[in-house]
Automatic annotation (TrEMBL):
This is Uncharacterized protein. Keywords: Membrane, Transmembrane, Transmembrane helix. The chain crosses the membrane at residues 6-24, 31-50, 56-74, 95-115, 121-141. It comes from the Bacteria.
Amino acid sequence: MMAIITGTPIWVWGILAYIVYVGIQAIKERIVSISKLFIIPIILIALRYNVFLSDYAALCGFSICGGTGLGFWVTTKNSGIILKEISSVKLPGSYITLVFLLSFFLLKYVFGYLSSAHNPIAVEYASVDVIVSSVLTGYFLDRGLYYVSRLR
């Protein structure tokens, strides 16, 4: 286990630190501009661009749709206050962002390790990676779209 952790590139730990920072900020009530709500989904889509060109494209699309449904359900339950004059939203504090981002990081970490050390296992379970990543992408994408629609 120590060999896995010490063999991890430094930049991966930087990403983890940023994810923890963003997640901790999300625990507290805060005001966020609508455009900032699209940063996470854009990053998640950029990380998965190759899936859209693979045999998993349909599964990815279906999972993103499922994630948007999840995002809509969660966002309507915990909706924020729209601040039209500054194109922002006052979001209630929640652990959901921290949990989802850490889940995404852990999934990518495990599959990154499996791809390099045990590629047949990574290939066998690639659909799990696609489904979970796409659902989380859809969740964060819907959250931004929901507030854009409420702003209008």
